[in-house]
Specification:
This protein is α/β, with parallel strands linked by helices. The chain folds into 2 domains: about 150 residues, Rossmann fold; about 50 residues, no CATH class. The chain contains 6 helices and 6 strands, in the order ββββαααβαααβ. It has a 6-stranded parallel β-sheet.
């Protein structure tokens, strides 16, 4: 079957659950990290599962529910290919495009799958301010610093205690607001570069989520 040139790229934000309102036959489906859980009972739908190199092993699917697994070894090629095609004069294209799984994953999609259109869900970056404040005050617990946790605790257990009684900002579990570790200005700059890159490459880039977020400026497109 010929793959659609319209990519649906899904993250773990609450708006990811709107995938149920879409005709998925119109898309090639890609998701990152925990978003695989949207398809754990539909293994023939999810084409590409992209996950960061430090994605917790305890959060991997127990049963394969995707056609292709894209890890850091694969998706890192996206930034290098973009540097060559877009003429960036930089030594570290991986850092230039934005060192989060969203930016790393979407440039891999742009370079490897060569889409005509990319539609986003679950990448609103609309983090619960209460969670963000506590996360920042506690020295940004994340995979690189082992979440500053007791090594006997699972990450799920640690997160459920750390963010206890706080409203979740993702559809599954208690994800940390790790993408803001470099600051809001950093994120907005990387979004601007992404929009420019898509324009140069002739790729339509839209956000299907109705959630308003000042950290994701991508043009909205309503779900019909």
């Amino acid at each position: 079957m010929t793959k659609s040139k319209n990519i649906l790229f899904i993250g773990s934000g609450n708006s990811a659950t709107l995938v149920n309102k879409l005709n998925l036959d119109e898309y090639t489906i890609c998701c990152v990290n925990n978003a695989w859980r949207l398809f754990e009972n539909s293994p023939d739908i999810l084409e590409y599962w992209i996950h960061s190199g430090d994605f917790p092993k305890e959060s991997y699917p127990e049963i394969k529910c995707f056609s292709n697994e894209i890890s850091h070894k694969e998706y890192v090629t996206g930034s290098s290919a973009a540097r060559a095609i877009l003429g960036w004069k930089v030594d570290s294209p991986e850092f230039l495009i934005g060192y989060t799984i969203f930016f790393q994953g979407i440039y891999w999609i742009m370079m490897e799958l060569k889409p005509e259109k990319i539609s986003l869900l679950g990448f609103d970056h609309d983090y619960n301010p209460e969670k963000v404040e506590k996360w920042l005050q506690n020295d940004n617990p994340n995979p690189q610093n082992y979440y500053h946790k007791d090594h006997t605790l699972s990450i799920k257990h640690w997160a459920s205690m750390f963010f206890e009684n706080m409203e979740s900002d993702c559809f599954y579990g208690w994800g940390t607001p790790d993408p803001i570790r470099f600051g809001e200005a950093y994120l907005l700059g990387k979004f601007a570069l992404l929009e420019k890159s898509c324009e140069t490459l002739g790729i339509q880039l839209v956000n299907l989520s109705p959630v308003e977020s000042h950290l994701n400026p991508i043009r909205k497109e309503a779900i019909s």
